[in-house]
Amino acid sequence: MEWLIIVLILMFVIAPVMWLKPSPRQKRHAALRSQTSKQGVSIKLEKPPLHNFKGTMPAYRWHYPQEGPGPDFLLVRDSNASEALAPFHAGWRWRIAPLRPLPDDAAIPLKALLERLPQDALVVQSTPYALTLWWWESQTAERFATYLPDFQQLRNSLQGRADQPVNQPLRGAELSASPASDQDAGLS
User: Fold this and answer.
1) How do residues 65-111 score in pLDDT, each as one tens digit?
2) Which residue intervals make up region (Disordered) (predicted)?
3) Whole domain around residue 155: which residue ranges?
4) φ and ψ at 91, to 5 degrees?
């Protein structure tokens, strides 16, 4: 009887320690995030741009260079999109379409990537700052590494194609057309 009590006490002491041990899924996610972040991808848990979504989701971001911002667009997988949204390619719909059509050197890699993405990839978004993939991390680091060159190529194709022009510093010719020079010339 004493041994049984000792075993039960040990189980109560060990059980919380076992709960703190990461699960195989948590280990896979940690390896995936670690490996991917070493490749220059930033990863955050954030609220995705999905209608009526509660909670957070992993967002994998490939940042555009500051001097070459990207276009604004948002693609949603059919399973999470309304029928009212315009279809794009391979089960994806535009929630926000780019203002100008994507050039072939960006549209072709985007379409190829959309065909290859896992089913738990729900959103592909581009803002002036970054290209973002919202997904549930169903794959291993080795498998996801096969997508990295495609995302980097797509980011490189999209950079510098911002919907709004980047503010440029004033040059000499623009300075001479300022109102102060009009006053000097007696035009005011």
Assistant:
1) 988 898 999 999 988 888 888 899 889 999 999 888 888 889 999 99
2) 162-188
3) 40-47+57-164
4) 85, 20
